[in-house]
Design brief:
about 180 residues; alpha+beta; two-stranded antiparallel sheet
Length: about 180
């Protein structure tokens, strides 16, 4: 379900970009290659500008708070282990200092999704190169309950920021 949502979101972003002002590309499912031309990762959304393919902003997209076959799953652990970890295992943003995570909150409860993700992050703080006092916190760039950030002691300057966006999804069918 994540892939078609991301495809539609990518098209929406492209269609609503001001091309006379916004001089960047938005690519869906971009593959990263290492120096030996081996695929190291697949980036869900990649924003790039200019001629250097090694400089970009990536967003890894994950489902959160999903109901599957009469069972509810928060999927916060997957968000961290199959999403955030990719910034620290060489799959994404090598030699860069920023990246992004986009959580599609399927039940629309962003407050609960943020809490679930924060708890999952705090349990894995060491693997995320986070200091003891660091956690998921309010964004330093945007004032919104749905936008957060985490700071990590990682990368070329031992300072890597992940911006987190929690996007409520309306999955309730319209019966009108």
């Amino acid at each position: 379900m994540e892939v078609p949502i991301t495809q539609r979101f990518c098209v929406h972003l492209r269609n609503n970009k001001n091309t006379s002002f916004d001089y960047f590309r938005i690519d869906w499912e971009s593959y990263e290659l290492d120096e030996e031309a081996q695929v190291t990762g697949r980036i869900d959304l990649k924003f790039s500008q200019g001629l250097d393919e090694r400089v970009y902003f990536s967003i890894e997209c994950k489902l959160l708070r999903v109901k599957r076959k009469q069972q509810f799953k928060s999927l916060a652990e997957d968000y961290v282990e199959e999403g955030m970890y990719r910034y620290f295992n060489g799959q994404y943003a090598r030699d860069l200092d920023k990246g992004g995570m986009l959580g599609y909150v399927m039940d629309g409860n962003c407050n609960k999704a943020v809490k679930d993700v924060q708890e999952a992050i705090e349990k894995r703080r060491l693997n995320l190169y986070m200091q003891e006092n660091e956690t998921l916190k309010a964004s330093s760039c945007i004032t919104s309950k749905q936008v957060k950030e985490t700071l990590h002691k990682y990368g070329p300057n031992e300072k890597f920021t992940i911006y987190h966006i929690f996007l409520p999804m309306d999955v309730t069918p319209n019966t009108n």
